Automatic annotation (TrEMBL):
It comes from Vigna radiata var. radiata (Mung bean). The lineage of its organism: Eukaryota, Viridiplantae, Streptophyta, Embryophyta, Tracheophyta. The gene is LOC106758483. It comes from the Eukaryota. This is Receptor-like protein kinase FERONIA. Keywords: ATP-binding, Nucleotide-binding. Gene3D superfamilies: Phosphorylase Kinase, domain 1 (3.30.200.20), Transferase(Phosphotransferase) domain 1 (1.10.510.10). GO terms for cellular component: plasma membrane; plasmodesma. Residues 47-313 form the Protein kinase domain. ATP binds at K79. Coiled coil: none annotated.
Amino acid sequence: MFLSCLGMSCWKPTSNTDSSLRQFSTVIQELCQQFSLADLRKATNNFDLNRVIGNGMFSEIYKGYLQHNGASDYTVAIKRFNDQGCEAFNKEIELLCQLRHPRCVYLIGFCNHENEKILVYEYMSNGSLDEHLQDGKLSWKKSLEICVGVACGLHYIHTGAKRSIFHCILGTSTILLDDHMEPKLAGFGVSVQGSRFMSKQKQINAEHFMGTWGFMATQFIRDRTITAKWDVFSFGLVLLEVVCRRMFYVINLAEKEFLENPIEEKIDPIVKGKIAPDCWQVFVDVMVNCLKYEPDERPTMGEVEVQLEHALSMQEQADITNSNCDYTLLSKTIIPLGVKQYVILEKCN
């Protein structure tokens, strides 16, 4: 598979964030609950390795159980940062205290005890999107609903807060799913704040980059700039992964030996015959536009959200009028990604 799981990434922005960090403690006190280290040791059975449910470059994530106002235990996700994770710890609190949106993971509280830096989040019982793409149990309609939800969350962080926020490491592993399979954005430890809402967006540069390059927007590779169009590009790759992991033949045109033998020949029976052609065409158009090489040619996340909602409504309408028949897709889409081109041969009937 040419798309690998997203690795954690980190860079240091050149913009000065000291002023925001000076107000950090006030924001925490107003919006977050403070837990003692003893509370969180008890919640995780002293950070039992059997409780680990995820890992990042700077942290381990545990499934924990806390008591609320003396009531019965409730489940939380507890992220414990290592010695190199102080900056990511500060960044997540700084940003998540501002983000109260149903498509962003909810920060419950924190612990800042000597060298221990720990965050407590709502528990997302259905894990990450990449896990569900691997097991192939998502219907096409649910996949589309999840994509709409992610677009809504990105639109919000770009335009809905006092300052625009660029996620920067969006991928299927940083999209989490709750009890109802509703998506929420996570992984804000290396996100970047832009200009204030309604003001002219300034160019943000990063000094260096560490981590996996697979979901990196082209403008960063070229000139180290970070804008909202970075997230648009990454979202396009998420859409591409939703497609390629489950549904269609994929050929890498840059490697001629694969022209006769596609890399992937897997059609998920759950989606086979279930995708309305009109819906699919809108979905593909959105994906291709998000992956444009030039940032200015990519749509905004607001435009993406509207188009995906339109695709979802077309699917729903088609399902009402065509309840007894399978749909047939047979076409070709060429997606240029830098020096390589990928062809998706849609065959789902």
